[in-house]
Amino acid sequence: xLSTAFFEELQQHFSNALPFVVYRKxxxxxxxxxxxxxxELHVIKDYTESGFVFSPFDNKDDAILxxxxxxxxxxxxxxxxxxxxxxxxxxxxxxxxxxxxxxxVQKGIDAIRKGPIQKVVLSRxxxxxxxxxxxxxxxxxxxxxxxxAFVYCWYHPKVGLWLGATPETLLKVEGNRFNTMALAGxxxxxxxxxxxxxxxxxxEQQIVTAFxxxxxxxxxxxxxxxxxxxxxxxxxxxxxxxxxxxxxFKNLDFKALLTNLHPTPAVCGFPKEMAKQFIVHNExxxxxxxxxxxxxxxxxxxxxxxxNRRNVENNVYATVKTVSNLFVNLRCMQLKNKSAxxxxxxxxxxxxxxxxxxxxxxxxxxxxxxxxx
Length: 373
Known about the structure:
Mean pLDDT: 91
CATH superfamily: Anthranilate synthase
Largest sheet: 10 strands, antiparallel
CATH topology: Anthranilate synthase
Distance between the termini: 20 Å
Radius of gyration: 20 Å
Structural class: alpha+beta
Order of helices and strands: HEEEEEEEHEHEEEEHEEEHEHEEEEHH
Number of helices: 8
Number of strands: 20
């Protein structure tokens, strides 16, 4: 569990209506928080800034920064306990009916079959009344249930309150080394040893992989692409390709790299601009920060060859590296007016079946539903 002092300080900051983010990286047991000292709204200009970034789906809109140099950093070790149990899954009353979403998906399928769009990610928003108004308690439930996800609670009084547990990395950078992934395709986890993927999911995943690799080509000196594997995220399975290598600092423009990379076909579609315009003109709401990205930006970390802190002699070889850990904002919700607005979507290709795509979005809502009262 989180230490009492950590939680109380975080709770007091929230009560004072001051910006903060609290988060845990995948498969980690340390929770970090950044408490901004004033309610000023900082926006990203060129991605040379240092802090926690919260970027919207539309990269033409402002990304918000909680700067390291004007915030207090606190952390606490966290162990999985029985203190918080996942709630029984509730049925969510939809703002967009099943029929409307199926019609939207079918419109996307028809557009793809006409060309030149190959994939488009279509989403919907659902609203659920919540009895638990304290977002930090919901955050703790997310910690308990989704150990392998990036779990966060982000708040700014001038922007809003968001929580999530995302399985997808956008980009990790440590010095000149980078890691990213192509994640696409979805099916329910049923404990079967042999998982069968249809051509639709395989094609969808290949589109994402090719896009990510192409987006990186002008910014890297080496690149490595793994075999496709099946990974579990909550109660769902996805196809994943790991992509890693070294950045070419002579040609690197971090802002341009992120602009090329985001939004990927995993949350938008391909070709990117055509798919994006289809989304903007056909989805009946503004995604805001859903399907955007978030995380540590240009954090300075001390790296040492020696993991034994008592061995002082080898610690003289410690170096300072610039680290960024950015994640795609999926499996997320916004809290507003005693309601949780749950955002969920799925990738549409020429082989999609509209009814199946609806069911996929229903399955994905369980990530959030399981932690709401």
